[in-house]
Write a structure and sequence with these properties.
Elements (H helix, E strand, L loop, with lengths): L1 H12 L15 E9 L6 H6 L4 E8 L6 H7 L3 E4 L5 H10 L5 E6 L2 E3 L1 H12 L5 E10 L2 E2 L8 E8 L3 E3 L8 E3 L4 E2 L4 E3 L5 H21 L6 H18 L6 H31 L3
Parallel strand pairs: 1-2, 1-4, 2-3, 6-11, 6-12
Antiparallel strand pairs: 4-8, 5-12, 6-7, 6-8, 9-10
Helix pairs in contact: 1-3, 6-8, 7-8
Length: about 280
């Protein structure tokens, strides 16, 4: 038992930031923390420890090769192995395993700030909505972004599963909720420590999945969208929402985002061309 506790604490020490709710003297909430993982050992302990106010923690892992499962167990989580289904389906599977109807869904590189923890506790004492979204603050190139697409990146993560569920999108999934959605104060801290190279590689995979999703739904290439989408995104986020105030980190962040918009439609065009070139 001592070894497991140390593993949880030591793995959290590897992270850059700690948002620890273990000292919360109040009783746990009738809520399940749900996290899907793969090779998330570097950040998982900080994530789980930031939401100790949940009465249950479930980690659904899809074949990690590192110590993700061991860390999760040492932090008190129920670990379930499930082959990868795609982001939306994987999260719906994880939510279905919860003992409570109220669930808080986090990514392994996200942490609940103390202010957000208090807001969640207050909201669930007398819930007025079936779902709640929270401002997510993103760390990029070593800087906490405060404007543009980086903040407030409103994210719906707390919901009653009887009235809400994840969409079935394989990437950029979102929660579909019945009725109005409440808003919480306090930040959800996205503390990703991945390198710029890894971030770019991930964006490349995501835009491929997005293009394939558009194609599967019957959408076809439009030159107007290829050109207009990245331009509109830059104006909206960098100019109107003040992304320029985040300096070089903000400029790089939105530049990658705009290129993602361009890449998505360029890849959709490639799929269109491949379909037209097939023999009838």
């Amino acid at each position: 038992m001592t070894t497991e506790v140390n593993l949880c604490a030591e793995s959290e020490d590897r992270g850059a930031s700690t948002f620890d709710a273990m000292s919360d003297p109040l009783p746990p909430l009738a809520m399940t923390l749900v996290v899907i993982t793969r090779d998330a050992g570097a950040s998982l302990a900080a994530c789980l420890n930031s939401a100790r106010f949940a009465s249950q923690t479930i980690v659904v892992d899809s074949g990690s090769g590192d110590d993700t499962a061991q860390i999760a167990k040492s932090c008190g989580a129920l670990v379930i192995e499930q082959a990868w289904l795609g982001f939306g389906p994987q999260k719906n599977f994880a939510v279905a395993q919860a003992a409570n109807d109220w669930v808080l869904c986090l990514d392994a590189d996200e942490c609940v700030s103390p202010e957000l923890a208090g807001a969640i506790r207050s909201a669930l004492q007398h819930a007025q909505f079936n779902a709640y979204e929270m401002p997510r603050r993103n760390r990029f190139l070593g800087k906490w972004l405060g404007h543009g697409e980086g903040y407030p990146d409103w994210s719906l993560r707390l919901f009653d599963r009887r009235h809400a569920r994840w969409s079935d999108d394989v990437v950029h999934e979102h929660v579909l909720a019945d009725g109005r959605v409440g808003r919480l104060s306090g930040d959800l801290m996205h503390t990703s420590g991945e390198s710029l190279e890894a971030y770019l590689a991930k964006q490349n995979r995501y835009t491929t999945l997005q293009a394939e999703g558009l194609f599967a739904r019957g959408e076809r290439f439009s030159a107007a969208r290829l050109i207009a989408s990245p331009i509109a995104r830059f104006i909206r986020s960098y100019v109107l929402r003040g992304g320029f105030l985040d300096g070089i980190a903000g400029l790089v962040h939105i530049s990658i985002g705009c290129f993602n918009s361009f890449s998505k439609y360029a890849k959709l065009r490639a799929l269109d061309q491949a379909e037209r070139s097939r023999p009838s």
